[in-house]
Amino acid sequence: MKKIIAEFVDTLWLVQGGSGSAVLAAGFPELGIGFVGVSLAFGLTVITIAYAIGHISGCHLNPAVSIGLWVVGRFDVKNVLPYVIAQVIGGIAGAAILFLIASGKPDFVIGGFAANGYAEHSPGGFSMTSALIIEVAMTFIFIFVILG
């Protein structure tokens, strides 16, 4: 049970630290942290939670890691579903907390809440095909690094 709680917490923290930086700190013209700051915030969030509770659950942080570790035989199949459920619930809880914080701003608009997308909803106007290719490629590298 400790491992499941740890996976809930690590995913919640990832949403808070990474997505929270994008929602709460990236957009200020003079002081905002921008794309580089958000990237660093995600990286620092992963490092801090890995050091804090990685020894408990392995700090998978997301279902792709749990599934990838299972596929290569380094994670027991009986743990995959509980980890994935904990990660999804942790992500939802993190997003809910972030929503409560961000919605306290007078000009808060739900449609602009850390939205990602493709085509006209992408900062670069990239297609869905481009989005899928980068998602698959970066997830592969992410899992490759973790397995290394």
TrEMBL record:
Tree of life domain: Bacteria
SUPFAM superfamilies: Aquaporin-like
Pfam family, one: MIP
Main location group: membrane
Annotated transmembrane regions: 35-59, 80-104, 124-147
Membrane topology: Multi-pass membrane protein
Subcellular location(s) of the protein: Membrane
PROSITE patterns, A to Z: MIP
Key words of the record: Membrane, Transmembrane, Transmembrane helix, Transport
Gene3D superfamilies per UniProt: Glycerol uptake facilitator protein
Listed GO MF terms: channel activity
Any one cellular-component term (Gene Ontology): membrane
Protein family: Belongs to the MIP/aquaporin (TC 1.A.8) family.
Protein name per Swiss-Prot or TrEMBL: Major intrinsic protein
Protein species of origin: Maribacter orientalis
